[in-house]
Design brief:
By secondary structure, this protein is mainly α. It is built from 5 helices and no strands. It has helices at about 5-20, 25-35, 40-45, 55-60, 65-75.
């Protein structure tokens, strides 16, 4: 199984989308903050492109979310 189709990765991306929408940030706004085209955000959210840990951290920084709390919540980890 490709890691992009791993259920844990899908859950992580769904959580990223939920947070972006909750904060009322559009794909265009997020992409602009990341200095990327909107298609980059769309490809990640559509599971056509995988985020690495550095890119994930960039997204979360733009959304003002701690990477630790995000991973705990997205993967259901109790601390």
């Amino acid at each position: 199984m490709s890691s992009i189709h791993d259920p844990r990765y899908k859950k992580l991306i769904k959580e990223l989308i939920r947070i972006r929408e909750l904060k009322q940030v559009t794909q265009v706004e997020l992409a602009t903050s990341l200095n990327k085209p909107q298609s980059y955000v769309a490809k990640v959210e559509n599971l056509d492109r995988r985020l690495d840990i550095l890119e994930l951290n960039d997204w979360l920084t733009v959304l003002n979310i701690s990477i630790i709390s995000f991973i705990e919540q997205a993967l259901g980890i109790d601390t």
